[in-house]
Write a structure and sequence with these properties.
By secondary structure, the protein is mainly α. It folds into two domains: about 100 residues, no CATH class; about 170 residues, no CATH class. The protein has ten helices and two strands, in the order H-H-H-E-E-H-H-H-H-H-H-H. Strands 1-2 form a two-stranded antiparallel sheet. Helix 3 crosses helix 4 and helix 7 packs antiparallel against helix 8. The radius of gyration is 22 Å and the shape is globular. The protein starts with 5 loop residues before the first helix and ends in an 8-residue tail after the last helix.
Length: about 270
């Protein structure tokens, strides 16, 4: 056998096997998750610094784990969550929600976990007066506060949709279309491509909800009771106010003020 030909013969013999193994690894959920997490860290590192990247990714992991925990708590099988570079993350259920209460509970769990994280770090900042702790608390608070903007597919949009759809489909649909216009206004005001993407997804969800209610006389999701709806709106308000207070409490820190511009392209 020629020494020059040996590499080609080996490649022909073992190449397909290595390709098959590589394909299986690529399709592995864990490998994909790890790859997306690593890409997210690199993406945020390119924009700012590796320290910022770590803060964002850890915050996103805790936030998305809140959604996964809530799904499991109500018996929804889940594939876990995926981090999406420059966008955030997404928890993936294996079945649709059975009720608006489930939808609300899963949606608000992420921001609640984020609020707990921000509150802990803010408390440490108050004790030690370390500006770095204050800046981290502000970043985490702002990231979760942004997620509470009442526009689907953000958590705030899903929470408000759950409440208004429980009051009545007509009211819910009116709120959905109004939120799209709010999103468009914020998109131009902040000059944010992230909001532009969110507005597109929001429009798709509106069309889906409209088509569903057009061909389904009865609500396809069980509505919340008036008491549950009031609790839904109250919990939304409490989380938003708490996140805003943490952000406000850190505004004297330059790095914390920078957090307010993170979603603006300019």
């Amino acid at each position: 056998m020629s020494s020059r030909a040996s590499p080609y013969i080996l490649a022909a013999a073992f190449g397909p096997k290595f390709f098959a193994i590589g394909s299986k690894l690529f399709k592995s959920v864990k490998v994909v998750k790890a790859g997306l997490a690593g890409t997210s860290v690199m993406a945020y590192s390119l924009l700012f610094s590796w320290e910022f990247a770590v803060i964002v990714v850890v915050s996103l992991v805790i936030h998305e784990y809140g959604h996964v925990w809530a799904m499991r708590a109500v018996g929804i099988p889940t594939k876990g969550f995926y981090l999406i570079p420059f966008v955030g993350g997404a928890a993936v259920p294996e079945r649709a929600f059975a009720s608006r209460l489930e939808e609300h509970f899963v949606a608000i769990a992420g921001p609640v976990f984020g609020l707990a994280q921000a509150t802990l770090i803010y408390g440490l900042y108050l004790i030690y007066q370390n500006p770095l702790l204050g800046a981290i608390a502000a970043w985490i608070a702002v990231l979760n506060l942004f997620n509470m903007i009442p526009i689907t597919p953000l958590d705030g949009g899903r929470i408000i949709k759950s409440a208004t759809m429980s009051v009545g489909p007509g009211i819910g649909m009116a709120v959905l279309i109004s939120s799209i216009f709010v999103g468009i206004g914020l998109m131009f005001w902040l000059k944010s491509w992230i909001l532009a993407l969110i507005v597109v997804i929001s429009l798709v969800e509106f069309l889906f909800e409209r088509r569903t209610h057009r061909f389904t006389p009865d609500p396809y999701l069980k509505r919340m009771t008036p008491v549950q709806t009031a609790g839904c709106l109250a919990s939304y308000t409490v989380v938003v106010v708490a996140l805003a207070l943490i952000t406000y409490g850190c505004l004297s820190i330059p790095e914390a003020r920078l957090a307010m511009t993170i979603f603006s392209d300019g």
